[in-house]
Amino acid sequence: MVKLAVVGKDVSKSLSPEMHRFILESLGEKCSYEKVSLPREKFSANAEELFLRYDGFNVTIPFKEEVLPFLNELKGDAGVFGAVNTVVCRTRTGFNTDGAGFSAMLSDAGISLSDKRALILGVGGAGKSCIYALRREGASVYAYAKNEERLERAFREYGDFTPLKEISDLRYDLVINCTGVGMHDTVGQTPFVRDTEGNDALLRLIENCDTAVDLIYEPRESEFLRLAKKQGKRVLNGEAMLFFQAYAADCIFTDRSPDEERARKLWDNYRREL
Description:
The protein is about 40% helix and about 20% strand. By secondary structure, the protein is of the alpha/beta class. The longest helix has 15 residues, at about 240-255.
């Protein structure tokens, strides 16, 4: 039996356990999958226990970068932008399947990225994953973060996007919320985006986009998506991304090669059955 877990600040409402169990059982694997919620200040003290207790674990907000000192090696996307969402305990190797999950979600929704203009809100681990995926698919990428120092650091480290210190009236094909604002203790809130006068320009930003994407899946309709839907925009939450990145992670845990067609069939079956 493969022993797995998801680790984050608050994973009490995470869909990861049921998704991973569904995927692994469909692949013929027996598994256990637990939720581990930790205060940020206690992650370091509990990290070694995670490696001893599990065969692998997934990492979510806010530990995608904090897990790095405990790893021996980063592979694939994790090595590109220094953020991890999947850990193999035996070798202490970190991977990141967020970008693959994000691309698969948009593809499944029929959203083409080639020659599109996309704006990322937030440049944490998830934001950098999405930037990388968008550029890989041929989109022009802009990014905004309330924390200008973090935005500048991401640009220095990665650089393959246009950093914005404020929002103008530029039109975007996609606006993607990667901040996490709108879930947990911020339900009902929206990410703040500053215009040249220092005012919140989110509504104008939504008005100038075609599609609004929120990586949040709980609640299923964040306030950001509700506002976009009210303006008649196409909206997409992050549940499909969670599933597709989980499939990619489970392929890593069980030493399988990912198969796009199989992943889509599993997603269709998951939605139908659960």
